[in-house]
Amino acid sequence: MENIIKNHKKAATHLEEAAKRHLEAAKYHEAGNHEKAHQSTIKAQGHSTHACDAQKEIQKQHARTK
């Protein structure tokens, strides 16, 4: 159960970071700084990928505990 909790927290943290980076990218686009917006978007995508990985682990762990 400890690993499930750990992965839930990991997924949540990465989703929060992805959201922050997407908002940051939007602000950079609004300011006309498209290069920084691109960098923020890449960071957001990385966090989203890590969140998806943690969610997959959660699903596997839940399937094993049933």
Could you explain the architecture of this structure?
- There is one protein chain.
- The protein is mostly helical.
- It has one domain (2-65).
- Helices cover 92% and strands 0% of the residues.
- The chain has 2 helices and no strands.
- The chain has helices at 2-30, 34-65.
- Helix 1 packs antiparallel against helix 2 (34-65).
- The model has no long low-confidence stretch (mean pLDDT 96).
Q: Report the helical percentage.
A: over 70%
C-alpha Rg (nearest Å): 15 Å
**Which structural category fits the helices and strands?**
mainly alpha
In whole angstroms, the N-to-C terminal distance is 12 Å
Specify the biggest β-sheet.
none
Q: Kindly give the count of domains.
A: 1
Number of strands: 0
Low-confidence blocks of residues: none
**Count of helices?**
2
Q: Would you list the SSEs in sequence order as H and E? A: HH
Q: Name the average pLDDT.
A: 96
Protein traits:
single chain, 66 residues, mainly alpha, rod-shaped
Blueprint of the fold:
Layout: H1 2-30, H2 34-65
Task: Briefly characterize the structure.
This protein is mostly helical.
